[in-house]
Amino acid sequence: SEQLVDQGTFEHLPILKKIAPSSTGPRVKGKVVIVTGTNSAIGIGRASAHQFAQNGARAVYLCDYDDSNLEAHQREITSLYPGVDVHTRQFDAADEESVKKVVDDALKTYGRLDVFFANAGIVGQPKIFTDVSADEFLFTLRTNVVSVHLAAKYAAPAMMITSAEKKYPSGSIIGTASVAGLRSNAGSSDYSSSKAGVISLAQTVAYQLAGTGVRINAICPGVIQTGMTKMMYDAAKERGTEKKIGQLNPLRRGAHADEVARVALFLGSEESSYVNGQAWAVDGGLSAGHPFVP
Ligand code: NAD
């Protein structure tokens, strides 16, 4: 490879070496991070806020339309990681003004925005597509994919301002999609369409952001034990079929929100500096193949 560098084939490599992250230091040191969908006590958003705070973030914004737990989460994170500024915002992830306001707040307070994790989302009861009204469908699209569009629309320019002051520009937008956006989903056509939309949005926006240094990726969780799946787990428990949920997975278990949050941390850090426009399945292998077991 030395020879290839001498030949100029990889002349960009010395630059990449300079921005290669240290695996020993805090992974998101000094970064200003917005996470949406953080109210749920067992959700992916709260777990991610912990990961960013624990790994050196300067500030973390906890945003959710339901703010009943936000202050408790703020107190908890502040007491565990005293160096981090934790802010709470009651906001609708799919409302343009709300998203613009939190991004403006971050810029005004810190002069920078480094990570926007657009994680808020909803799922309705599983339904046959003929029973899904146009209004329901639009509501799901609005919450699950318009929210990621708005995050990218306002975060990317803010990250570019931040980037202009840096030698090597960076900035990371992350949207929560789902394995339901990658493969067929027996549950709900509105949900899977919205999550496929998040993946497509990330792919397209990654290209449109070319040259800015800002990256965008989608995370595709499998079946994770959170507020969203609680009803499913509770119903399965009542039927005595709870174990079956894990048994369908190649790892033979379900997952905790933290297992998704650690991937969000990776995508928000410089460790993923060359990862862009991708859909990251975090599903124990569920989407890797056909679930049929003879
Ligand atoms: P959760 O229900 O525990 O958390 C979702 C949070 O989003 C809640 O706190 C809710 O109040 C918030 N929210 C919903 N609509 C909002 C809006 N318009 N504005 C602001 N906040 C809003 O569920 P979770 O599993 O942690 O969900 C996080 C993300 O992960 C969602 O996008 C979901 O679709 C996705 N996901 C979850 C699973 C899973 O198995 N749990 C699988 C695939 C994808």
Automatic annotation (TrEMBL):
Source organism superkingdom: Eukaryota
Signal peptide: none
Presence of keyword Amino-acid biosynthesis: no
Gene3D superfamilies the UniProt entry points to: NAD(P)-binding Rossmann-like Domain
GO biological process entries: abscisic acid biosynthetic process
MF terms in GO: oxidoreductase activity
Alphabetically ordered keywords of this record: NADP, Oxidoreductase
Keyword NADP: yes
Family: Belongs to the short-chain dehydrogenases/reductases (SDR) family.
Protein name as annotated: 3-oxoacyl-reductase
